[in-house]
Specification:
Elements lengths: L1 E5 L9 E5 L10 E11 L1 H8 L16 E9 L11 E5 L8 E5 L3 E3 L6 H5 L2 H14 L7 E5 L4 H13 L2 E6 L2 H9 L4 E4 L6 H8 L5 E6 L6 H7 E9 L12 H7 L2 E4 L7 H21 L6 E6 L3 H9 L6 E5 L3
Length: 331
């Protein structure tokens, strides 16, 4: 079968291309073989291609891919929910950017009838991550205020839509005015262009009329930590998901005590299959109906043929995309 293959790790992605590798052989009783039609490209894939974010044990470091959509090709003896020909999508710890993928049946969801495979492949990693962070762990409810950093990212856009569906007020930040304008069209209540991190907290508190954020989804990391502590409302919850600006910062313990703050670090890829299955089920139970109705929708920025994977990786690395980039493996 064909697979996106990293033959040499490095920053320029010159050694990423399609390669012939053996198909998965057989399944365990609770596993499914999926014929992958489309697979998303995530920043974790870029880090893996650079050699700085290897996958968990059991997955090839040379074959990236964390999310996919396709058709069930075969199923193990203990699989009851899925049968050959079913349209499915889901998350995995690696190897999704290949024509066939062996996966635990519990990590699959049924593709809503109104979505094609390219759209479906833009959903799992971003939406499950955002749902698990903001809705499950952050406990966002109607009437609360959510602050999303990097709101124009895949996870940010997913969180925006699900928060609005919950009846929350959403304020987002970005370094790009054009991305904020696009987010406003998707329901963002207010946008903050970040030109100086030192001014971030003051701008947010002005937008929130001094109330602060009940939940903050931070996809940036160290540079935003101190402003986040200032922006949090009393009993606020800070969800740390990304570290693009670094992992180390000073921590004002007094603010955390005064605000009775909850600081929650979360990651999806390294979790056990059981934990990923629980996060997948929680998202499916809560949000698949919203995908079917169009209340929320995939944020598909651009599609690349699988043979142009290196170009797709460079495009994501450029930070020009608004939403998700997907590889087409259907031909």
């Amino acid at each position: 079968m064909k697979a996106v293959y990293i033959s040499e790790f490095g920053d320029n992605f010159d050694h990423i291309g399609l390669c012939d590798i053996p198909e998965p052989e057989g399944t365990n009783p609770g596993e499914v073989i999926v014929r992958v039609e489309a697979a998303g490209v995530n920043r974790a894939d870029l880090l893996q291609a650079r050699g700085s974010y290897p996958p968990p044990s059991g997955y090839s470091a040379n074959i990236p891919g964390l999310e996919f959509a396709g058709v069930v090709a075969s199923a193990g003896s203990e699989v009851s929910e899925w049968k050959e020909g079913d349209r499915v999508f889901g998350i995995t710890a690696g190897e999704a950017q290949a024509e066939y993928l062996r996966i635990d049946q519990r990590l699959l969801m049924r593709v809503p009838p109104n979505l094609d495979f390219l759209e479906a492949a833009a959903i799992p990693e971003a939406f499950i991550t955002a749902h698990d962070a903001v809705i499950v762990q952050g406990g966002l409810t109607a009437g609360e205020t959510l602050l999303i950093h990097a709101v124009g990212s895949g996870v940010g856009l997913a969180a925006l839509q699900m928060a609005k569906a919950k009846g929350a007020r959403v304020i987002g930040t970005s370094r790009t005015e054009a991305k904020l304008a696009s987010c406003l069209a998707l329901g963002l209540d207010a946008g903050i262009t970040v030109t100086d991190v030192d001014e971030l907290a003051a701008k947010f508190l002005e937008e929130s009329e001094g109330r602060g954020a009940d939940v903050i989804l931070d996809l940036v990391g160290a540079a935003y930590f101190q402003p986040n502590m200032t922006c949090l409302a009393v009993k606020g919850r800070l969800l740390l998901v990304g570290l693009t600006s670094g992992a180390k910062t000073e921590f004002n313990l007094a603010l955390a005590l005064q605000k009775r703050a909850k600081i929650i670090g979360t990651v999806l890829r390294g979790r056990s299959v059981e934990e990923k299955a629980a996060a997948t089920k929680a998202f499916a139970d809560d949000q698949l109906r919203n995908l079917t109705s169009g209340t929320i929708r995939p944020n598909l920025d651009r599609v690349f043929p699988a043979q142009d994977a290196a170009e797709a990786y460079r495009y994501v690395a450029s930070n020009k995309n608004f939403g998700k980039v997907v590889l087409d493996l259907s031909s």
